Amino acid sequence: MSDGYEILRSAMVKRLREHYLIRNEKVLDVMNRLPRHRFVPEAIKHQAYKDNALPIASNQTISQPFIVARMTELLELTPNSRVLEIGAGSGYQTAVLASLAGKIFAVERIPNLASEAQERLQKLGFHNVTLRCADGTNGWEVYAPFDGILVAAGSPEVPQPLLEQLKVGGRLVIPIGKDPKTQFLIRMTRTANGFQTEDFGACSFVPLIGEHGWK
Ligand code: SAH
């Protein structure tokens, strides 16, 4: 079914593949199908497929398509994965995750963003997402452990509860930086006797605000 955004959407995916070297075809395929324009404010709908983050309500942003693709790819999801997402915002990243994994537990601290994201995801027919409004730096203990945890906001350090709620073999992808405006995209994989840490370069996210993030 045509929604009028096919050309812009496939240009976005071409850029992800050729310029940003995103190699996971499943991630590219999902982003080629999802109506990203339905996750941004009506007034800037036509900008939804551009190569940058965009403002949403409450001074927050919908992440740049490349960052969504990269973070998703780094989680190495399977159709059975249980995923915790912190900072659902518009719900776009949530929808990408929900298209690739088994069950998504999403947390957003701003009430109006949480309820709008929930409504959007419901309208689009996602039945494998449980979303709540809370401080995600505490994780979501009752649904732990997770195969993947994605944090879409920058933190000065890795929140300890998130490490505890990761399965052995599970991956946490999170932007970490002491400067509130710039971070490094970090992936931590839980091993039998600790964590393996990898750095995927500089990035810039809105701050993760909470008990184990920015105060
Ligand atoms: N992936 C989202 C990104 C939204 S920006 C999207 O593309 O739309 C990051 C979000 O993290 C913001 O909505 C912000 O309110 C939220 N956030 C910040 N600190 C948080 C916390 N402690 N718990 C849950 N959400 C948080």
Output the keywords:
215 residues, alpha/beta, Rossmann fold, 7-stranded mixed β-sheet, two-stranded antiparallel ribbon, 28% helix, 26% strand, globular, binds S-adenosyl-L-homocysteine
Give a description of the structure.
A seven-stranded mixed beta sheet has the order 5-4-3-6-7-8-9. Strands 1-2 form a two-stranded antiparallel ribbon. 28% of the residues lie in helices and 26% in strands. It is globular and about 50 Å long. With 215 residues, it is of the alpha/beta class. Strand 6 (146-151), helix 6 (160-164) and strand 7 form a beta-alpha-beta unit. It is built from six helices and nine strands. The protein has one domain: Vaccinia Virus protein VP39 (Rossmann fold), CATH 3.40.50.150. It has helices spanning 6-18, 25-33, 65-75, 92-100, 111-123, 160-164, and strands spanning 54-55, 61-62, 82-86, 103-108, 129-133, 146-151, 166-176, 183-191, 194-203. The protein binds S-adenosyl-L-homocysteine (SAH). S-adenosyl-L-homocysteine is lined by residues 60-63, 86-87, 89-90, 92-93, 107-110, 113, 135-137, 152-153, 206, 208-210, 213.
